[in-house]
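Today's session is about reading a structure prediction critically. Students often jump straight to the picture, but the first step is always the sequence itself: look for stretches that repeat, for charged clusters, for runs of hydrophobic residues. Only then move on to the predicted structure, which in these notes is written as discrete structure tokens rather than atom positions. Here is the chain we will use throughout the hour.
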Amino acid sequence: MKRVVVIGAGPAGSAAAMSLTKFFNIEVILLDKATFPRRKVCGSGLSPWTLQLLDDMGVGSMIRKEVYPIKAGIIGGSGGVVELRSNYEAAVLSRSRFDTVLAHEAARRGAKLTEGVRVQELVRENGRLRGIKTNQGDMEADTVIVCNGGTSKLDPVERPGTTLRALMGWYEGVEGISDAVELYFDPMVKPYYGWVFPESKNLVNIGICYDPAMGNLNAQQRFEAFIEGRLAQRIKYASRIDYLMGHPIAITHKPTALVQPGTLIAGEAGNLVDPATAEGIHTALASGIIAGNFLGSILEQGIEPSLEQLSPYTQLIRSNIGFRFRASHAFLQVAKTPILDLALRFGSFQPIKQVLTWALAGA
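Below is the predicted structure for this chain, in token form.
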């Protein structure tokens, strides 16, 4: 029996583990340094494409029982604010709950979920993977799938891209909350955005995502400017739950270097995050599924997981999700210009609404 260690039990790791459990003679070990539930800096939005992917994984109905359904999107900028409604299905579910449900489902399907284990190093000998070192001792492994997020130190490879910053908090009692998610491309964060995502009728997460290389404001200053400019009246009688949380987000428009000997990289650990929206849930799930299915098929056939045998994985990722990255990269270039504000100014016209709806649904 071959042992696969999946490092990180977020969406990418849980999806990879679920996929691996379908194959014979594979022991799946799913490790996470945290103990579930744990918080994650994320808008927690589930796009139509994400919900479809969850359906394909057989967990869609389970997730839908707990989500806050989204029926509309609001996009704002210097050109105005446009509300978009369509037949697209979207939702919000806090990452603490979303990740817990997926990790526990992976365990129910046969993966051995172990929490509170921090992987410190991948052990290789003569170019072959031998195992891992953790804070609880060494562990043998035939292969690993690295899914432990954008701050991972297990795969120190330079990839083309940018590191963004996010800062967010949870609030109760914000006025004007409905069945819509809100995205605002304001000057202090543009070409990225600030968001207001309802997790329930009374609880919302509010945050910003920005490129620290653009402008002189720090995260706290940008967040306060966003609140003051967009939400001052709506938040006047609201209360913040706990403290603000920040997190780096590594993005790329071209998936690169996702394979090492005996090792595949998925999700944020491989910078697989939408370059325009910094949304990583869909790409985490998609890359985890691809990694699990690809590796499972190789091991089930008794093929040695050498660098040569694993190398097609990077191209599989590019073929399956690369087009979204390219489209998002193009949208990002548009967002840097006055075109987006111009589109918002004429957002009442149906062709403009259709384009904006497609862009928002993808996010």
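Discussion point for the tutorial: DSSP finds ten helices and 17 strands in the chain.
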